């Protein structure tokens, strides 16, 4: 029997790329998830483009800031080439919830985690990925709040993304990897506090 190199699934690190900031009017373009245990050891990961619709494509190209950001990240080009054949949002919701259910340990809570998830990704999840939302604890772990509190309290940027590799890549999986870097710094610093 192979020994497991991680504990039970605990965190679902999440990031979305969208046509804008309003989950009620804008569209999801790309989603990514990395599942870790409480020690932040990776268990599995997934990412997917969301099928491009005429409305989403028009919205993406009408906002110059968003269009430039997704041009620079390469997402715009990937959507232009593959977006029309990508999975539908409903399929991604069902498939991701089945995948998370298979990874979850009975009786254990899965918690959404990431940078900005409390105010951005969690509302998008509740509205657009309801089957995924139903599996997650109502209170996400937003590592950007922890990093900001640390910076405000100490003046140190040890937990900032700039310190951990730079500005956001604006690709869902790469942004999660940056958030995990911040979280690993936070875990290390928090463990130094005498309890």
Description:
It is a single chain. The longest helix is centred in the last third of the chain and has 20 residues, at 172-191. Strands 3-2-1-4-5 form a five-stranded mixed sheet, sandwiched between helices. The model has no long low-confidence stretch (mean pLDDT 93). It is of the alpha/beta class and 195 residues long. The chain contains eight helices and five strands. β2 and β3 form a beta hairpin. Helix content is 46%, strand content 16%. α7 packs across α8 (172-191). It has one domain (11-191): Nucleotidyltransferase, domain 5. It comes from Microbacterium maritypicum MF109. One of its GO terms (molecular function) is nucleic acid binding. This is Exonuclease domain-containing protein.
Structural key phrases:
5 strands, 195 residues, RNaseH-like_sf, Nucleotidyltransferase, domain 5, globular, alpha/beta
**Strand-pairing-aware structural class:** alpha/beta
Please tell me how large the radius of gyration is.
17 Å
Per DSSP E runs of 2 or more residues, the count of β-strands stands at 5
Total domains: 1
Q: Architecture, CATH level 2?
A: 2-Layer Sandwich
Note the run of SSEs as H and E: EEEHHHHEHHEHH
Share of residues in helices: 40-55%
Q: Name the strands of the widest sheet in spatial order.
A: 3-2-1-4-5
User: Low-confidence stretches at least 5 residues in length (pLDDT < 50)?
Assistant: none
Which CATH class is shown? Alpha Beta
Strand residue percentage: 15-25%
Label the overall shape.
Answer: globular
Biggest sheet features: 5 strands, mixed
Mean pLDDT: 93
Q: What separation lies between the terminal Cα atoms?
A: 37 Å
CATH topology tier name: Nucleotidyltransferase, domain 5
Q: What is the CATH superfamily label? A: Ribonuclease H-like superfamily/Ribonuclease H
GO molecular function, one term: nucleic acid binding
Organism: Microbacterium maritypicum MF109
Protein name: Exonuclease domain-containing protein
InterPro entries: Ribonucl_H, RNaseH-like_sf, RNaseH_sf
């Amino acid at each position: 029997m192979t020994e497991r190199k991680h504990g039970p699934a605990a965190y679902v690190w999440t990031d979305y790329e969208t046509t804008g900031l309003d989950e009620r009017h804008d569209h999801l373009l790309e989603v990514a998830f990395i599942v870790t245990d409480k020690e932040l050891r990776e268990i599995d990961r997934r990412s997917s483009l969301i099928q491009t619709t005429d409305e989403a494509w028009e919205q993406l190209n009408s906002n110059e800031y968003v269009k430039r950001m997704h041009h620079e990240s390469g997402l715009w080009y990937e959507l232009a080439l593959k977006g029309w054949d990508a999975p539908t949002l409903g399929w991604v919701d069902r498939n991701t919830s089945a995948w998370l259910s298979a990874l979850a340990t009975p009786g254990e809570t899965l918690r959404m985690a990431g940078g900005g998830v409390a105010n951005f990704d969690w509302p998008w999840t509740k509205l657009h990925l309801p089957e995924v939302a139903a599996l997650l604890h109502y209170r996400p772990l937003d590592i950007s709040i922890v990093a900001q509190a640390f910076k405000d309290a100490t003046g140190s940027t040890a937990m900032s993304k700039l310190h951990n590799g730079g500005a956001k890549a604006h690709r869902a999986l790469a942004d999660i990897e940056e958030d995990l870097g911040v979280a690993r710094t936070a875990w290390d610093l928090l463990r130094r506090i005498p309890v």
